[in-house]
Amino acid sequence: MEIGEAQKLSWENKNLKGFNTTDVAFEFGLLTAEVGEAFTAWRKGLPDLGEELADVFLYLTALAEMNGVDLDFEIARKIEKNAGRSYERNGHGALVRTSDA
């Protein structure tokens, strides 16, 4: 399934079921909660990590839809941008961007 198709289907489901489609701040809060649930599933080795990560994605697509963002396009553009960047480790071992190429 393509990202754009998932975004469309997720949005249709939200509308059909009467979920939030207008309150962006609330949707960001729900996304944050889902990230926490995914982290807990990973930390505890629970079998539903994949489902929790899918929930994160679905809330993210809803936020994109609420804000008129074509997530498929933006992800492809960001991957291309990231591919041209260079990084080096600093004295603390953290990766620091050295170029945007």
Describe the protein.
- With 101 residues, the protein is mainly α.
- 65% of the residues lie in helices and 9% in strands.
- The protein is built from four helices and two strands.
- The protein has helices spanning 3-17, 24-43, 49-66, 71-83, and strands spanning 86-89, 95-99.
- The protein has a two-stranded antiparallel sheet.
- Helix 2 (24-43) runs antiparallel to helix 3 (49-66).
- The longest helix is centred in the first third of the chain and has 20 residues, at 24-43.
- It is globular, with a radius of gyration of 17 Å.
- The protein starts with a helix and ends with a strand.
- The relative contact order is 0.14.
- The mean pLDDT is 96.
Give a concise summary.
The chain is built from four helices and two strands; from the N terminus they run ααααββ. By secondary structure, the chain is mostly helical.
